[in-house]
Amino acid sequence: MTQLPARYDHVGSFLRPKYLLEAREQKAKGAITPEQLRTVEDKAITEIVKFQEDVGLKSITDGEFRRTYFHIDFLDQLGGVKTDIPVTIQKPDGTQELAPPVMRVVDKVRHVKNIQLADFQYLKSQVSPGNTPKVCIPSPTMLHFRGGRAGISRQAYPELDPAFYDDVANAYGDELRSLAAAGATYVQMDDTNLAYLCDEKMREAARQRGDDPNELPHRYAAFINKVVAQKPAGMLLAMHLCRGNFKSTHAAAGNYEPVAEALLREMNLDAYFMEYDDERSGDFKPLRYLPKGKTVVLGLVTTKFGQLEDKDDLKRRIEQAAKYAPLEQLALSPQCGFSSTVHGNDIAVEAQRAKLRLVVETAREVWGTA
């Protein structure tokens, strides 16, 4: 198995600087060209790379600064996929929630162009030698879970298995190969669906769509493994699990137990970023399924709010997790990105620095030189 760059890591996205948000607005109004926007994005990415390296991170992302949403911008560029733009809804208690976009498969899924290649090449050009540029892409399960069978064209796919899963895996394989050819060695797939399947409300919604929530994790494990089977040699492939992160809200809660065996034991991945920042995630017992050779990155530091965690509390929680999985197979990170969508979380820019420094310092103290 390929090893993580360090015992401390992060999920990927960062708060967008004001000038980048303004440039996006100008582009939407037609006041600047896509090329002009890209020049502004380049500047912002150069700055966020330096920020990550100054904090001491070894795994470096572009902050997802070229995206509006963590998943739509990528999936929309696959052949055969269309998404309905999500809208913000006001919940009865006055809080806001992102009504999740429904991704529809309207034709055969295929890789019609290299989606992340140019973005990766720019990121790589900015990252210092010795550090590892990381590419974040949405998990392929996003094309199934939100819409279920009804969201996938029966004309294109009279039967889902194996044609749909094979086509999606082949498209992902093409993307991974294009990245590997450019020197990418670290790719993270962001997945909300397995974490959602820990929540009884979400499990019931899956039943209403005609899916069995007990069977789905195992089906998704086989699906992910079709992608892993095409992973280029020397590439680390990780999965990040998230229960929702729109403007510091969450969409799901629940212990990992319903999905743990399929996730940790059945999926042939190298590493898992698992949310553990509050009681929504349950206890560490599901980590008992972690086989040798894999790493779980404990997301103990929240990105939703600015209050800084206590270092001793983090160490105690790592100790608790180590009762179920060996300490040498664990690492530390924030629980999610700071800005899964362009809107960002309810957290100050400087809090990002403090949170990440805490992660780096704590990990170095727990695991030594890391």
Explain what this protein looks like in three dimensions.
InterPro entries: Met_Synth_C/arc, UROD/MetE-like_sf. One of its GO terms (molecular function) is zinc ion binding. Residues 11-364 form the Cobalamin-independent methionine synthase MetE C-terminal/archaeal domain. Pfam families: Meth_synt_2. The protein is an alpha/beta fold. The protein has a single domain, classed as TIM Barrel, CATH 3.20.20. It contains 12 helices and 12 strands. It has helices at residues 18-29, 34-55, 72-75, 117-126, 142-145, 163-181, 193-196, 200-208, 216-228, 257-266, 311-321, 349-367, and strands spanning 59-60, 79-83, 87-90, 96-99, 103-110, 132-133, 135-138, 186-191, 236-241, 271-275, 295-301, 330-334. It has a 6-stranded parallel beta sheet with strand order 7-8-9-10-11-12. A two-stranded parallel ribbon has the order 1-6. Strand 11, helix 11 (311-321) and strand 12 (330-334) form a beta-alpha-beta unit.
- CATH fold label: TIM Barrel
Assign the CATH architecture.
Alpha-Beta Barrel
% residues in beta strands = 15-25%
Q: Which structural category do the helix and sheet elements fall into? A: alpha/beta
Q: Provide a count of the helices.
A: 12
Distance between the termini: 18 Å
Number of strands: 12
Write a compact overview of the structure shown.
With 370 residues, the chain is an alpha/beta fold.
What is the secondary structure topology, with strand pairs?
Elements: H1 18-29, H2 34-55, E1 59-60, H3 72-75, E2 79-83, E3 87-90, E4 96-99, E5 103-110, H4 117-126, E6 132-133, E7 135-138, H5 142-145, H6 163-181, E8 186-191, H7 193-196, H8 200-208, H9 216-228, E9 236-241, H10 257-266, E10 271-275, E11 295-301, H11 311-321, E12 330-334, H12 349-367
Parallel strand pairs: 1-6, 7-8, 8-9, 9-10, 10-11, 11-12
Antiparallel strand pairs: 2-5, 3-4
Helix pairs in contact: 1-2, 6-9, 9-10
